[in-house]
Amino acid sequence: MRILVLGGDGYLGWPTAMHLSAHAHEVAVADNYLRRRLCREEQVNFLYEVPDLDERAALWQSVSGHRIAVHIGDLSQWDFVAKVFEKFGPQAIVHYAEQPAAPYSMLHRKAATLTLHNNLSVTANVIFAVREFCPDAHIVKLGTMGEYGTPNIDIEEGWLEVEHKGRQHKFLYPRQAGSLYHTTKIMDTDLLWFYVRTWALRVTDLMQGPVYGLFTDETEKNERLLPFFNYDEIFGTVLNRFVVQAVAGYPLTVYGKGGQTRGYLNIKDTLNCVRLSVENPADHGELRIFNQFTETFSVNDLAARVQETGSELGLNVDIQHVENPRLEAEAHYYNPRHTGLLDLGLSPHYLSEDVLVEMMEYVIKYKDQIKHDQIYRKVKWA
Ligand code: USQ
């Protein structure tokens, strides 16, 4: 299939592009390097430098024989979007092109506005471009488990059957996000659902939990193909951060009580979930929603796992309950369903000691480059 990966420079976008290309799809990526720019502005470093998209695509072609077309531009601008869609004529679009960090969206008014403007206008442009240039194409949109929040009832996959005064109706599951970033994902879902109903678009919305890891089958060919890796408070996800903190000898920053529970997945499973969704498209007029994670952990569980593996590698790992900069429940019920992707054939890579050892051993190579002052900056929610 011809697949357009939007946000193809990102932590997940680039590995997804290589993975789809390795599975014999024709892939193009589009990105404006927004994440790199925001990291520079916030004085945040990746753990190691990564080449730009043209270099990565050339390297990928030299090791795999497959070509990935690169389009550099801003997807919140219609002219660029129209040009890329018209030229490539995608059969599927994988949409990652968003400002993806909850703490960034809570930094200050300018960051909040950028998050709102970027995320919603890119999603709207994708919808309008599909309608205009490729109405049969399937949109695979990266949503987030954070759209649901932490309700005191089970979380279904996207939809809830409600009985009210003796009558029944199916609704989008009630959503209560915990940050402005997560709220933009709810708004994306609402936009997509409106146009699924109005223009019979085909959409899969993947409610993904926090991702960890850096290795995929494709990165084995050359380490310069690895995705960028954030460990700072603003852009890093919790398990990646804990691995870096363990290596740096920085006490693991468990926010508050540490009972915050989320659904996690290995980066390898992100790629498989996206590919399975693309290869088994939603129907016209269908908004299909999958909860994309493989196992749930509390922050305390993750810290204990990292501490245990760290000790086996001879690292002295402390755990510290620090003041929680976020407003979130620190002890709560959490029981989300996640059978849709398993039914499509996902075979999960669970969090094992081997996975943590492999990550830690790689991070140890860059131990001297870890900047301690980026780890805990207390970006406050309120
Ligand atoms: N946390 C700590 N200590 C830390 C960092 C995080 O206790 O040093 C806690 C957070 O307070 C939160 C949990 O760990 O309760 C997860 O935090 P995170 O930073 O790994 O994840 P989050 O901000 O929710 O966002 C990440 C991605 C986002 C994706 C989301 C999925 O950045 O793009 O949408 O995970 S989910 O969390 O399910 O909404």
Task: Name every ligand kind in the structure.
Answer: sulfoquinovose-uridine-C1,5'-diphosphate
How many β-strand runs?
14
Our Rg estimate from Cα atoms comes to 20 Å
* Order of adjacent strands in the largest pleated sheet: 3-2-1-4-5-8-12
Count of helical segments?
Answer: 12
Report the β-strand fraction as a percent range: 15-25%
The H/E string reads EHEHHEHEHHEEEHEEHEEHEEHEHH
Low-confidence segments: none
Mean pLDDT: 98
Percent helix among the residues? 25-40%
| Biggest beta sheet attributes | 7 strands, parallel
Outline type? globular
Note down, in words, how this protein is organized.
The radius of gyration is 20 Å and the shape is globular. The protein has helices spanning 13-22, 34-41, 53-64, 78-88, 102-105, 109-133, 180-199, 238-248, 267-279, 299-312, 340-344, 353-364, and strands at 2-6, 26-31, 68-72, 92-95, 138-144, 159-164, 167-172, 202-208, 211-212, 252-255, 261-266, 286-292, 295-298, 319-322. The strands form four sheets. A seven-stranded parallel sheet has the order 3-2-1-4-5-8-12, with helices on both faces. The model has no long low-confidence stretch (mean pLDDT 98). The protein is 38% helix and 19% strand. By secondary structure, the chain is α/β, with parallel strands linked by helices. Sulfoquinovose-uridine-C1,5'-diphosphate binds at residues 100-102, 144-146, 182, 208-210, 237-238, 241, 253-255, 260, 262, 299, 326, 328.
